[in-house]
Amino acid sequence: MKYDALIVGAGFAGTVCAERLASAGKRVLVIDKRNHIGGNAFDCYDENGVLIHPYGPHIFHTSGKRIFEYLSNFTDWRLYEHRVLAHLDGEFYPIPINRTTINKLYGLDLNEEGVKAYLESVREARNDIATSEDVVLSSVGSDLCDKFFRGYTQKQWGLDLADLSAGVAARIPTRSNDDDRYFTDTYQFMPARGYTAMFEKMLGHPNIEVRLSEDFRVLRSVVEREHTVYTGPIDAFFDYRFGKLPYRSLSFQHEHLTDVDQFQQTGTINYPNDHEYTRITEFKHLTGQQHSGTSIVREYPRAEGDPYYPIPRSENEALFKRYHELAEATPDVTFVGRLAQYRYYNMDQVVGAALKVAEELAQ
Question: Which of 36, 100, 172, 347 has its CA 20 to 30 A from that of 215?
Answer without folding.
Answer: 347
